[in-house]
Structures are given as C-alpha cells and as structure tokens.
Amino acid sequence: MLPNRSRTSVLVFLLPPLLLYGAAVLFPILQSLFLSFFSWNGISDMEFVGLDNYVRMFFADDIFWRAFLNALIYLAICLVLQLGGALVVASLLTSLRRGRELIKTLYLLPAVISTVAIAFLFVRIYSLEPVGLLNQLFQWVGLGALERPWLSDVNTVLAAVSAPEGWRFTGLYMLIIYAALLAVPKELEEAAVLDGASRWTLFTRIRFPYIRPVWITTTIMATTYGLRGFDIPYLMTNGGPGQSSELLTTYMYKTAFTSTDFGYASTISVFIVIECLVAVGLILFLLKRKADS
Amino acid sequence: MITQAAAPPTATAAVTPPQPGRKRRRPDLFRTLSRVLIMLIVIVQVYPLAWLFVTSLRSEHDFATGDPFALPGSLTWDNYARAFETGDLGRNILNSLTVTMGANVLIVLLGMMAAYAIQVLGFRFSRLVRGLFLVGIIVPVQIALVPLFIDYSAVNLLDTYQSMIIPLAGFSLPMSVYLFSSFYEYIPNETYEAASLDGAGPYRIFGLITLPLSLNTVVTVVLVNSIFIWNDFIFANTFILSEELKTIPLGLQNYIGAMGKVDWTATFAAVCVTITPLLLVFLVLNKAMIQGLESGATKG
Fold first, then answer.
1. What range defines the domain where residue A156 resides?
2. Residue range B236-277, pLDDT digits in tens
3. CA Rg value for chain A
4. Fewest CB within 10 A of the end CB: N or C in chain A?
5. Inter-axis angle of helices A157-182 and A115-125, to 10 degrees?
6. How far apart are alpha carbons B77 and B251 in whole angstroms?
7. Residue A40 lies in a domain
C-alpha cells in the first residue's frame, strides 16, 4: 500500500473501470434476474408473472430440456477434443527434440480464425453434394457406408456442430498444459525413471499430479467456454434440423430475438449462468478433493 | 474426431511394461510413434485451412465437380474479384479495426487503473472488488444480450460502434485486471517508497513508475484479447444493423445469398482476405502471443 494515498485517489483509479464493468457485466446480470420474473415482448407493458417463467421452463417446455441435454453432449465432445487432445499432444510434444515451436504455432492456428469462417469451412467439409472432405475421406478408406449429409442427419448433426468448436481451441489448451509440463522438475522424473517407472506411471504419478492446478484452471476454462458455445451451431444449423442441434444458448437467442419473449429468454439466461457456476463449483469440488485424498 | 481415434495407440505404447532386452530400443519406438501421431494431429489442425486457401484459387466449375482433395487444375484470382464485388470487405476490415482498437484502449487503460487501485493503492474492500471481477470470467456473455439490447434502445446506442465496444471491453476487463495485478505484485515496494519520499503522489507514481513498467503486460493483454474481439460475432450480430458498421464476421455472412445459395469459391476468397490481418499479426508475434495465452491461463 502506498503511504500517501488518499481516498480520492483510490476512487479516481477504481471508479472508471467499475463503471464500465458494472454497465456491461454486473448490471445486465441483475437486469436478467429481474426480467426473468416478467412477461414482456419489448413493446407492450411489462407484466409481473412471479415464478411462471421458471415453472414453464422446468415443467412445460420440452425444447428447453432437449436443448439442455444437447448442450451437455456438446460440452462433453468439446471437453474430450480440447482437454484430451491437448493433454495427448502436450505430453508427446515434450518428447520431441526439435520443431516444438513450429508445432505449437501450427496447432494454435485455428484459434485465430473467426467462427463465421470456421462455420463456412465446416459446412463444406461435411457436405455430401458436391462431396466434401469428410465424405471423400470415408470413401477412400472403404467406409463409404458412413457417407451422409452430416448436418441434415438428425443423428449426427449435434456431433458435427460440436467438433469444430473442439478443433478450434484444442491448441490453446495444449499450450497451457505444455507450459505446465515443462515446469515439472527434471530431477523428479529422472529419479522415477531410475526406479524403473514406466512412461504411464511417470505420467500418472509424477507429471499429472504436478500439473493438477493448471489442469483445474484449463478444465474450468474449457467448461465455461463449452457452456457458452453459440456461434458455430447457430451459424451452421441454427439449432436444426428440428431441435436436434439446439443448445440452451441458441434457444435463448431465438426466444429473445426471434420470438421477442424477453422475459422467458432472461429466465433461460439465468439458468445458463447458474449452470456455469454449478459446473465450476463441481470441478473445484471433484478435482480438489481428489488432490487431497 | 481423428484425435480421439488416434489416442489409444499411445496409451498402449505407454502402458507396455518395460522389457529388459529391448530397453534401448523402446524409447526410439515411442519417439517415432509420437512423431507420427503429432504429424497426424497437426495435419488435422492445419489441412482444413490450407484447403480453404487452395479452394479460394479454384475455378467455380472445378470446385463443383472435382475431388475436393485434388489440387486445382489451374489457379484463378477471379474469386477474389467477385469477393470484393459482392461485399464491402475494406469497410468490414476497417470497422473491425475500429472496434478492436477502441475496446483495447479501454481494456488496457481501465485494467491498469483497477489493478493499480487493488494491488498498489489498496483499500478496505479490495478483496470484494477482486471477487467481483472474477464473476466476469465465469459468466457467459449471453447473459448480457437481452439487457444490453433493452438499455441500448433506451439510450439510442443500438447500431453504433460503442454498442460493440462496451460489452467486448467489459467482458475482457477481468482478465486484464488479473494480468496487470499479478504483474504489479512483483514490483518491489521500495520503488514506491523511494518515490513517495521524493514527494510523488499516487498519480505521479502511476504515470512515472507503474505505467512505463507495464508495457510488456500491455502487449500480452492486447494480443490475447484481440483474438476474441476481432472475431466477435454475437455482440455485433445482436446490436448492429446497418451495412456501414458491419465488422468482418457480419460482413462474411452477406455471402450467403438469397435462399441460402452460396458462391463458395468467392466466399472462401473473402474468408482468406479477412483472416489475413490477424493471421499475419499472429505469425509475426506468435512468440509473444503464445506466452500471453499461457500466462493468461496460469495466472488468471
């Protein structure tokens, strides 16, 4: 603490950032909470409906539950691709002698590309007519039977819109995990190797426990990002066909800006926030507890 | 999906118990395997982007009929000409630059100020304020869409640069505050005490000591946030209506014609044009950017 600071100086430095943050983040959260108790289409008078929106969401809205389930599957696919892929590549990368920097750069490349560009790209990759990259690949390896229009098949569309999001950010998480793996003390690893530890034991007993704090952070990042996933499903299928790739976020968006049901849309966004907080709490609880045992 | 399918071989390779006679060969086998696997995964990451670029140079006919993996018979720049005719790419890029710079100025300046107040000046509720900023990292941006849409229409901010800059800066501010304050932790107290003895107040200390020392962190903050701001789709899509204000992601959507008909090769040409600026920055500054992303996560 500075000795001759004054109350005014603290306020001068603190108020402008809090003002922006309050206006853009904190106040809208409260406003959503408030709106979730009203029925309002943006034009007519707001009508207080108490818990009606919540009752409707939990007990009378099949689309909501469908979208919630889809969002969980979307999240699971993203996590496997992002964290699983990141961990595998990061571990392999530490065994390379040369070219690490180049591979890091190449691997991160998709993270720089906008979601709109990625959506365009993957629409073509999945296309059947003219045959896109994925279907062509299946033809070549003799899996022609798997050929299909991935985005209009109700059984594959959800996985098809989830994979690009996983693909996009796996490089980011790889970087973080790789940096953490590099920080594992070499003496520890060498001592374990001398004791005859296999690569697997080395990984589970020494490397992974060492990077656990970073793993918790990356899991939280990937989960909160996965739960707010919106752009790619919205752009590629807009939740369709039917509701088969509808996520809570796309459903909320359509409720707000297509059906202009601001009250109900706010109820769904409140649910999304709570879902994020619960997810973070769960991750901390599960991963921290394991660390203690 | 290929990453998933490729995972088991490593696991088995790693689980294989050490066999005395092969001890010297095993590391080589492992190394070769991991090299092949890394190459495969890198191809999965990079090939689609290379394909995007090659397709943007393909003739329309070639694209509609040919094998998608084949190299084009002839290269053409026609797609780029059509891309510039269809959309106002120059304008889109300029708008994205305006929004990215505007948001970055706010994020850097306000982030530094908040971190200075919390970390250097210190006050009674500093822990509470720090916690408030944490909320912004966890909470999804979608929560702000409906309220901001309503507020903007009340104060006539819909369809302006500010309507994009405010939420983009607001949601990036927490990360910036954390990066700056974790850096300020390492500035020794003696530096400030010496300056204080010389009679410098909090404002002069901020301007003469903290600000100049923060330059490296500024680069990190700008690089990390620019990726997200430059590519923002959801705020722009919600708040922007007029063509003149459309940023790159919105501009690209104009290439979807009536009834969903798309001129794919021209669209891919437009995509290539619009990803070039950030891609160049990334390739030139990739060391700094990679460092920034790493520290953003481990400290944030």
1. 49-292
2. 999 998 989 999 999 888 887 655 677 888 888 999 988 888
3. 24
4. C
5. 120
6. 20
7. no
Position A27 in a domain: no
Interval B46-96: pLDDT, tens:
888 988 888 888 887 777 777 777 777 777 888 888 888 888 888 999 999
ipTM of this model? 0.88
Joined tokens for residue B270: 């437009």
Taking one residue from A and the other from B, the number of pairs with CB-CB distance under 8 angstroms is 301
DSSP 8-state secondary structure symbol assigned to residue A218: H
The answer to the question of residue A148 being in a domain is yes
Q: B97 to chain A, minimum CA–CA distance in Å?
A: 14
Residue B249 to residue A266, Cβ atoms within 8 A: no
Intra-chain end-to-end CA distance of chain B, in Å: 30
Q: What is the 3-state secondary structure (H, E, C) of chain B?
A: CHHHHHHHHHHHHHHCCCCHHHCCCHHHHHHHHHHHHHHHHHHHHHHHHHHHHHHCCCCHHHHHHCCCCCCCCCCCCHHHHHHHHHCCHHHHHHHHHHHHHHHHHHHHHHHHHHHHHHHHHCCCCHHHHHHHHHHHHHCCHHHHHHHHHHHHHHCCCCCCHHHHHHHHHHHHHHHHHHHHHHHHCCCCHHHHHHHHHCCCCHHHHHHHHHHHHCHHHHHHHHHHHHHHHHCCCHHHHHHCCCHHHCCHHHHHHCCECHHHCECHHHHHHHHHHHHHHHHHHHHHCHHHHHHHHHHHHHHC
Contact B68 A130 (CB under 8 A): yes
Across the interface, whether the CB atoms of B297 and A4 are under 8 A apart is answered: no
In a domain, A127, yes or no: yes
* Helix or strand holding residue A48 (H, E): strand A47-48
Do residues A138 and A146 make contact, with C-beta atoms less than 8 angstroms apart?
yes
Instruction: Chain B: give the shortest CA distance to residue A142, in Å.
Output: 16
Domain residue ranges of chain B, discontinuous segments joined by +? 2-55, 84-299
Q: Do B138 and A125 touch (CB under 8 A)?
A: no
Pick the most confident of A75-84, A278-287, B61-70, B206-215. A75-84
| Closest by Cα among B158, B234, B95 to A114 | B234
3-class DSSP assignment, residue A39:
strand
Residue A12 CB neighbours (<10 A): 16
The total of structural domains in chain A comes to 1
Q: Which CATH class for the B84-299 domain?
A: mainly alpha
B38 touches chain A (CB under 8 A): yes
Whether residue B279 lies within 8 A of chain A, CB to CB, comes out as yes
Looking up tokens 């300046």 gives B109
Is A33 part of the contact surface with chain B (CB cutoff 8 Å)? no
Q: What is the CATH number of the domain that holds A65?
A: 1.10.3720.10
Instruction: State residue B7's pLDDT score.
Output: 40
CB contact, 8 Å: B228 with chain A? no
Contact list in A for residue B238 (CB cut-off 8 A) is: 257
